[in-house]
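Table 4 source record.
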Amino acid sequence: MEGLKVADGNLVIYVPPSKSKNVSDAILSELSSQLFKFSESLDGVLLAYDVDMVGNLAKILPGIHPFFGVKLKSKLLLFNPKPNMLLEGKVVKLSQHAIHVIVLGFSSAVITEEDIPKEFRYKIKSGKGYYANRLQKQHKIKVGTIIRFAVKSFDEEILHISGSLLPANTGSALWLHTNSEDRSQADRNSKKLRVEDDRLESMQHNNGAVNGEIVSLNSDRQTK
């Protein structure tokens, strides 16, 4: 899946003097506090880490509340989806106007009505809603389906993704994998159907209608 990257680099963790007797625990505690948060320094959401302390010396930073700056070598797993990247997530809720998805178990995503292809029709069976593709009868999206979608935007503060199913090679991940050989024909049919639907709507309308850089990571102290 796109949006994931492994970064090798150097970190500086700031440890207060009160925790100088157990630096290792202080470092792990600080890194754990940064998990599943977007960091501008790291350019992504920290999902996992593996670090090694560089030497036994720490630089003391003067001030009213002095800190020890501990250098670390790191391998970090980061998540930072960009527009047009393809992500996969599990559908947790859907309606006639939107599909709600969870990505990697922590980031929410929504695909609104305008980004759901017109060949998909919302239906209800046994009290449960789902989307069915009228060109590919077996292509369905329901709660629990793993879907592949394109990123439109990513809100770094609340870790919310706006997505789209309009680009090619999006939809049910299982269906895409099983029917990859038929995608070209399906895409041609989809484009033709969209043109016809757009023409119909137009007629109705007319009728009236980090790598390698040293970065600091600390939730309490900001360096300048």
